[in-house]
Amino acid sequence: AYGTSVQNADTDGDGLTDGEEVYTYHTAPTSSDTDSDGLTDGDELNIYKTDPTMDDTDGDGVVDGQEINVHDSNPLNADTDDDGLQDGEEVNAYRTSPTTADTDADGLADGEEVMIHNTDPLSADTDSDGLPDGAEVNVHMTNPTSDDSDSDALPDGWELLYGLDPLSSSGEDGIEGDPDFDAYNNLEEYQ
Q1: Is the dihedral of CA 76, 80, 82, 84 positive or negative?
Q2: How far apart (Å, rounded) are the C-alpha atoms in residues 18 and 24?
Q3: Mean pLDDT of the 86-114 span
Q4: Can you give the pLDDT at residue 5?
Q5: Which of 43, 69, 73, 80 is 20–30 Å from 87 (CA)?
Q6: Dihedral of CA 156/157/159/164: which sign?
Q7: Which residues contact 63 (CB under 8 A, 6 or more apart)?
Q8: Quick check: 1 pLDDT over 80?
Q9: For 4-28, what is the mean pLDDT?
Q10: DSSP state of 172
Q11: Phi-psi category of 95—alpha, beta or left, where left has phi over 0 and alpha has psi -120 to 50?
C-alpha cells in the first residue's frame, strides 16, 4: 500500500530505509524529500537535525533548504544572527543578511535600525549627512534620519567636521556664528 520496492530497502534513495520512513519518522518512503524543502529526508535527520515533515523547521519564513543552500543561515534558529529580525524578515522584507547582525556595518544591528531608529539597514548613513547611523545614535546623539538635527541649515556631519555642536542652532554653533573670526558666518562658510 506504500508503493515501495520489494527489492530495495530504501525505495527513494534518501538514506532512510522504507521501514524507518513509515514507522519511525512518518516520512514518505517514495519521496526523497517529503516536505519539498530541497533537502533529502535522510540529510534532514542525520546531518542538519531538521524536521523532514516541515519545510521550515524554525518557522522563520525561509524553507530549510534555502537556509542551508542559499543563505547559509541556521534552519534551527529563526534569527541566525541574533539581530532582532527573523531570517525570513531579513530575506523577504528588508533584503538584509540573515547571517550578519549589522548588514551595512554602521554600528547598529539590523533589527535596531528597523524597529527602533527607523533607519535603513542597507545604508550606513541613512540621512546622507556624512555620519554613520551608529555614530549618530551612540556617539553624537544626533538624529540619524535627519541630516540637520538642530534644524539650522547646517548638516550634522559638516558641523562636527568644523567643531560645531550639531545639536545647537544658537551662538557660535548657529548659522550666524563665526568661530574662526574670518568675517564669514557659518552659513556662508557652508554654502
Answers
A1: negative
A2: 10
A3: 98
A4: 86
A5: 43
A6: positive
A7: 37, 38, 55, 56
A8: no
A9: 94
A10: G
A11: left
If residue 111 lies in a helix (H) or strand (E), which one and from where to where? helix 110-112
Three-state DSSP state, 24: helix
- Non-local (6+) Cβ contacts of 181 within 8 A are none
Cell of 12: 527513494
pLDDT of residue 41: 98
Q: Inform me whether the pLDDT recorded for 190 exceeds 80.
A: yes
Cβ burial of 107 (10 Å; 0-12, 13-18, 19+) is middle
The most distant pair of C-alpha atoms in the chain lies apart, rounded to whole Å, by: 96
Residue 167 backbone zone (phi > 0: left; psi -120 to 50: alpha; other: beta): alpha
Q: What are phi and psi of 45, to 5 degrees?
A: -75, -40
- Check residue 164 and give left, alpha or beta (phi > 0: left; psi -120 to 50: alpha): beta
Q: With contact defined as beta carbons under 8 Å apart, do 64 and 38 qualify? A: yes
> Which residue reads 531608529 in cell numbers?
117
User: In this structure, are residues 149 and 142 in contact, taking their beta carbons and an 8 Å threshold?
Assistant: yes
Total-model pTM: 0.84
Cell 539597514, residue located: 121
